[in-house]
Amino acid sequence: MNKRINSALVSVFNKDGLEEIVKLLTKQNVKIISTGGTAEFIRKLNVPVTEVETITNFPAVFGGRVKTLQPQIFGGILNRRDNAEDQKEKAKHKIEDIDLVIVDLYPFEETLAKGGTPDEIIEKIDIGGIALIRAAAKNFNDVVVISSKNQYQVFCKKLEQGAESTLEERRRLAGEAFAVTSVYDSAICEYFQKISRATLDINSRVSLRYGENPHQKAEFIGKLEESFIQLQGKELSYNNLIDTEAAIAVVSDFKDPAFAIIKHMNACGLSVQKDIFKAYKEAYKADPVSAFGGILAANREVGGGIAKLIKKQELFVEVIIAPDFSKEALEIFKEKKNCRVLRWQNPALPEKQVRTCFTGILSQDRDTQVEKESDLKVVTKRKPTKKEIRDMLVAAVATKHLKSNAIALVKNGTLASMGCGQTSRIDALKQAIDKAKRFKFSLKGAVMSSEAFFPFPDCVELAAKNGISAAIQPGGSKNDQASIDMADKYKMAMVTTSFRHFKH
Predict the structure, then answer these.
(1) Helix (H), strand (E) at residue 111
(2) What percent of the chain has pLDDT over 70?
(3) Paired residues of 496 in beta bridges
(4) Is 503 marked active-site?
(5) Same domain, 7 and 132
């Protein structure tokens, strides 16, 4: 059925090619309704134009975010001309028909491609425009929708013959409109997936040799190449992947050069120094026994010096991951054919963490909190020294990435020892002290970090008796004062952070 176009809503971001359409519409006695910049453009052509505000009786608000989202506009588009009830309501509310919608969308993809800021990108997510296109396409029985400037030429030829459309034409244009909105929404969806990295590509699957144990089947769902590029070595296993993520998570929390050695998702070695070579040397010293068969991670390029030292130590390495590797380092690692060398691709890990639980899925925000000096509240009589504060901040990150209950002992930017996965905090501390003694680490002047509050003063007392000079903890126990008093007794410095880092 042919339909006469009597009124048109025109609102476009890109004005290219609009002049010809507007003049043809005027020639065909079509009433033009428009908004903001488009209305101004039309007015400069000496073409009569009705501003949307005169129909809605409401100005554009929130920086133009809301201007067409109003019943007088959408009612004009969506009312069914052959529906008696619709026509009664239209008359009652004094709604005028809109027979043609010419709208394009904010340049979201272009803004993204040009490297726009997050705020600029968000503001280029079209709301009103895409709603108008969808509304017009839905009501194609009565309304013509032009959703792309690529349609202008054909439409102009049609207008030259008269302001009428066939049902077939309207249906075709509706289909093209939904294609436009689909591509647009897909681009936005992809953007948010990339920044959150929380959505899995279920069609991309990699079978793994087995799960945590040989009798368990396993696969990785998603695209590993979004996280890293494997430069050499055997295929990655289930355990390799979870340990590697744990490793890169630790070093990513530091701005200074940091090196971590991970075993079973816990750091057995960690050091933050002025250069990455020294960081590796110090991290290895913490527990050379556990380092064997570990996952190595750096937040700086791994050079030949580190590779030579690993070779000299005859250290068996499952995985080493870093933002990059020197040519010399890669040549040396080639001698370790089974060693998996990974180039880390992303500066950040997913914002969401998910896991199965019973018959459902648990989801939570990733713990991205990294304590800074301004977060520290001194609760003891003695204030910590600058050196102690630096070590406290390293220790706080260490405990954040250890399985609870966890204690980390840090000295000179290096994890001297740790206790983790214990059912009581005092046992975690005893484990850490015992380990430090076995590897002949002096704890005099070391700092202690706990990922949760001290429920009793026993940890503080034991730490002080072993030479530990300062402690960092979240605080928040009703028994905090007992630990503070014990610290004062031994002239320890203690700070609280108000941030708990349980890791079950």
Answers:
(1) helix 108-113
(2) 97
(3) 377, 473
(4) no
(5) yes
